[in-house]
Amino acid sequence: GLVDAVGVDAPWRMLAGTSVNFDVSVFELFTTWSTGGRVEVVRNVLALAERDRWDLDVISTVPSAFVELADRIAASTRVKTLVFAGEGLSRAVVERAREVLPGVRIVNAYGQSESYYASTHVVSEGGTDPAGGGVPVGRPLGNVRAYVLGAGLGLVPPGVTGELYVAGEGIGRGYRGRAGLTAERFVADPFVSGARMYRTGDLARWNGAGELECVGRADAQIKVRGFRVETGEVEAALVAHPAVAQAVVIAQEVPGVGGGKRLVAYTVPVSPDDSGSAPEAAPRELRAWVAQRLPEYMVPTAFVALDQIPLSPNGKLDRKALPEPELSGETYRAPRTAQEEKLAALFAEALGLEKVGIDDSFFELGGHSLRATRLVGLIRSSLGVEVPIRAVFQNPTIAELAQSMQGRPAAARPRPRPRLRRMTQE
Predict the structure, then answer these.
(1) Residues 380-403, buried b or exposed e (16+ Cβ, 10 A)?
(2) For position 156, what pLDDT does the model report?
(3) Residue 269 · residue 306 · CB < 8 Å
(4) Which residue ranges of the chain lie beneath pLDDT 70?
(5) The pLDDT of residue 402
(6) Residue 1's closest CA among 122, 179, 101?
(7) pLDDT the model gives residue 131
(8) Distance of alpha carbon 146 from its chain centroid, rounded?
(9) Whose CA is closest to 248, among 322, 313, 299, 298?
(10) Long-range contact list for 243-251, CB < 8 A, 24+ apart?
(11) Which residue, of 29, 116, 125, 288, is most buried by count of CB atoms within 10 Å of its CB?
């Protein structure tokens, strides 16, 4: 079923940029090899922006990564099928993909490491998909059963939201050494005697076309750039800092076409001791502290210091009372040269901010690897200078990057993309 959804005659050529720690790599590698295809292994999908030409049949990626890459791969990449997974796919991203890669087949896939790929939806070109902001995740694959269940594990009617469970041949047996979590997530299938099903934690519904639509999470897990994150794990890392007494981490929608989420951390400092002193931690220190203990995608984008965590009358976190974060850097210093002024505008565009000072760190203002890719593309198209992504990590401020750009070669002009003509049969 997964091979059929890809819709490319075997053997095909696949870009493999997903870590072998994730189930997507099994699709990229073994599904390709089992059909006699070839795999081009790269560090990650951002490698698409680092070469002048790519001739591929299939690329799998998350929507937010594709949006950041779109401008840089339009003239250099030929691909027949895009397989999106890991995040909700919006129609805005679909439209962007069709604009950048005319004629490309778009597949929205769904699944977890515990179940591998569970369902797929091929996005139609004629606009016949059900209306709505998100793209359905489709119908279960041939070896998968999907249930949308309500209270008491009862089936809910089409159109009604419930929790999604998946079952079938590919479901895992549980978590090694974690019996409690296994019992919580892998439960008896009430519809097939002796079988088990996996509780995904996703809220879903069946639409009028008989396809699944995911509408959110039923637990504390969130998705950040395609990675599942337990906010409690990030909060525990923050509270381990000697200056932090309490911490709450939430996910906020990122504005723009790519959507996705970013992590925002709210912290309460420890109380002063008898001498009236207490350790303090600036956002830069907290960011470095978390980065030493957790992967990059689990490091909050913004840090907000509070006197106390706001609670509702019943003692639960009052999310509506949490203030909006203000992403700010060092004391503002204006651009000194024409190049710094142009870079400041590009930094602001890539970060979605009104202005950026020349001493402000790109990453302390909410930047990450995908936004760095977008910044590199903006510099290439606006200033005509080729800047490798690693240069942004090494020189994260406008002042530093401007200095490093001195003497860099001009960006190569993209090769014109051949026009495609639709063949019709008389």
Answers:
(1) beebeeebebebbeebbbbbbbbe
(2) 93
(3) no
(4) 126-133, 219-221, 254-260, 273-278, 312-316, 326-331, 407-426
(5) 92
(6) 122
(7) 42
(8) 24
(9) 322
(10) 243/269, 243/270, 243/278, 243/279, 243/280, 243/281, 244/268, 244/269, 244/270, 244/281, 244/286, 245/269, 245/270, 245/271, 246/308, 246/309, 248/309, 248/317, 248/322, 249/300, 250/319, 250/322, 251/222, 251/224
(11) 116
Name, in order, each residue with C-beta under 8 angstroms of 111's C-beta and a sequence gap of 6 or more: 23, 85, 117, 118, 119, 166
Structure tokens at 149: 């269940």
Instruction: Give CA 256 to chain center in angstroms.
Output: 13
Contact 67, 96 (CB under 8 A): yes
Gap between the Cα atoms of 234 and 289, Å rounded: 11
Tokens 């081009």 sit on residue: 40
Per the CB < 8 A criterion, the answer to whether 216 and 162 are in contact is no
Residue with tokens 């490798």: 388
Over residues 318-334, the pLDDT tens digits come to 888 888 876 555 567 88
8-state DSSP, 52: S
194 residue type, one letter:
G
Taking CA atoms, 231 is separated from 87, 283, 297, 326, 331, in Å, by 17, 18, 12, 20, 31
Residues constituting the chain: 426
